[in-house]
Design goal:
Layout: E1 2-12, E2 15-20, E3 24-30, H1 32-36, E4 46-53, E5 58-64, E6 70-71, E7 76-77, E8 81-87, H2 95-107, E9 112-117, H3 126-133, E10 140-143, H4 153-159, E11 163-167, H5 174-181, E12 192-193, E13 198-199, E14 207-212, E15 215-219, H6 264-270, H7 276-294
Parallel strand pairs: 3-5, 8-9, 8-11, 9-10, 11-15
Antiparallel strand pairs: 1-2, 1-4, 2-3, 4-5, 6-7, 12-13, 14-15
């Protein structure tokens, strides 16, 4: 019996597909000791497995190695970053939804790459406007045309050597990006539904796809709404990196940058140093958190 180390890339009905670098995918069953100890293997877990016959590529899951982190939605472990994909147009980018995603990933201490797809459909000034809105968000911003490989080098370079969660609404081109990075993933792509203006959700489960040495990509089902992280409304201002240069410069030390006079953040918005779209989303999310805490 040969004991190996690999990464879980898929799990269905008690069976786990584990990718071993020099062997490929191995189908495994979890040993009873894992269930006895209450350990639930997750996609992305680094594991030890026994492989009695490497030709058959079947084995047993022996243990789960310590996790660096884990997400609940999608249920995946040992993530290095998230790449969130929105279209420049068709559908129009829902910036409030994007800001919610940035907050959720910041809560998990995960860096985010924002990828705006469908640049071929952009109107005059669309890309410049989006770049300006998110210039201070703390995230890298890429503009691509996923069906044009000549524009995709920047995306591929961001993925190399990392485990990345690929997320975003339906119909924005996530599966096209997945197919570019790993054609063998053979992800089904769907057309926009003309009736409701949304994409048909073609990703029905989460799994890791092996790209190359140390590079994995997790495509997730599209989302149309996101709950905010469980934080107090007056903590929200600390999760907007654009605000940090102005902290301590307001008249009131506990200023939450909404209705207070002599607010340095509001002055920065008026001066164009902070994007108004980001500030407007901040105020909407603040009110949502305040109402949630009240109830």
């Amino acid at each position: 019996m040969v004991e190996r180390t690999g990464k879980i890339v898929k799990g269905v009905g008690g069976l786990y597909e584990v990718y071993v670098e020099d062997l490929g995918p191995v189908l495994c069953r979890a040993k009873g000791i894992l269930r006895y100890n209450g350990i639930r293997p997750l996609i992305g877990d680094n594991v030890k497995l026994s492989v009695p016959d490497e030709k058959k590529r079947e084995g047993n899951l022996l243990s789960v190695l310590p996790r660096r982190n884990s997400l609940i939605r999608p249920a995946v472990a040992n993530v290095d970053q998230a790449m969130v994909v929105f279209a420049v147009r068709d559908p129009e980018p829902h910036l409030n939804l994007l800001d919610r995603f940035l907050l959720l990933m910041q809560r998990e201490n995960l860096p985010v790459v924002i990828c705006f797809n469908k640049t071929d459909r952009a109107g005059e000034g669309d890309t410049e406007k989006l770049r300006d809105i998110y210039r201070g968000s703390g995230s890298k911003v890429l503009f691509v045309q996923a069906n044009n490989p000549d524009t995709m080098d920047a995306v591929y370079n961001e993925l190399l050597g990392k485990t990345t969660v690929l997320a975003g609404p339906s119909g924005v081109g996530k599966s096209t990006i997945m197919n570019f990075a790993q054609p063998e993933a053979a992800m089904e792509t769907g057309e926009l539904s003309g009736k409701i203006g949304r994409g048909k959700n073609t990703t029905r489960h989460s799994q890791l796809n092996y790209v190359t040495n140390g590079t994995y990509l997790c495509d997730t089902p599209g989302f149309s709404s996101l709950f905010l992280p469980d934080i107090a409304a007056d903590e929200l201002r600390f999760m907007y990196p654009e605000f940090s240069p102005y902290e301590g410069k307001c008249r009131f030390p506990d200023c939450v940058h909404r209705k207070e006079p002599d607010c340095a953040v509001k002055e920065a918005v008026e001066a164009g140093h902070i994007a108004r779209e980001r500030y407007d989303n901040y105020t909407l999310l603040y009110e949502e958190l305040a109402a949630k805490r009240k109830w």
